[in-house]
Structure prediction request, 309 residues.
Amino acid sequence: MTTTTEAPPPASADAPEARARGTRKRLVPYWLLLPGILWLVVFFAAPLVYQASTSVQTGSLEEGFEVTWHFAAYWDALGAYWPQFLRSVGYAATATVLCLVLGYPLAYLIAFKAGRWRNVVMVLVIAPFFTSFLIRTLAWKTILADGGPVVGVLNSLHVLDVTSWLGLTEGQRVLATPLAVVCGLTYNFLPFMVLPLYTSLERIDPRLHEAAGDLYARPVTTFRRVTFPLSMPGVVAGTLLTFIPAAGDYINAELLGSTDQKMIGNVIQSQFLRVLDYPTAAALSFILMAAILAMVTLYIRKSGTEDLV
Prediction:
């Protein structure tokens, strides 16, 4: 008995072309990511590597700088400017808390109570972005001027006596004090807190509030057990968007403060542009970045929103 074997069918001529089309289709997402990757490489990764090499250099502007792996520059910079680091963290944390206290009721109002005025209020929140950051800060310099109405009202109410006793102001003036710097930071970064809070609150189903009311929950209990826990992603995002840029800010301390209120951003700016001590400036930048990254990571872990990491 003989068996016959059939020859395999000839390969289709369209098979290589089909494989090529499949390969191109798989590569489409990577091609779409290419512009963003190039942007990050050119404007983030490359400057980061350059600053890392600068931080371990020694020399001077006249003689030139050379990479000598002088890691002691980090310790020297931290030892010389640790008060400015602590001041920056304190000012940024205070401004963040104030932005949360002021921004949460505003975001709640927009999300649940504004009704047909919601878009108008949102425009009012975003409107400061249409003005330069520098001009907004200069406006606060005028608002808090010694002869202005704000300081006059605070003096008549004896508020400045209390803030002076707390060390927030000096005598009967507000400018060139910690209070002025914190006020500027709070105003400039308040929209960064309101917008994430509004986005998070707007996603909450109103029927959850109705269900809590049906279960005889008081409004305070409803807020504490329903609204605030569900808005935690917005709280975390808003605090991060406020604290991170506020910690590295130098405009508010430069225009609204004095030499006693200088933040680490002012030191870095001065080392880069005035003193021309590039290794120290680069070391301070990396220390600030590492400190903020550590604090932000710890905060996210403690807040229970690891999915945001």
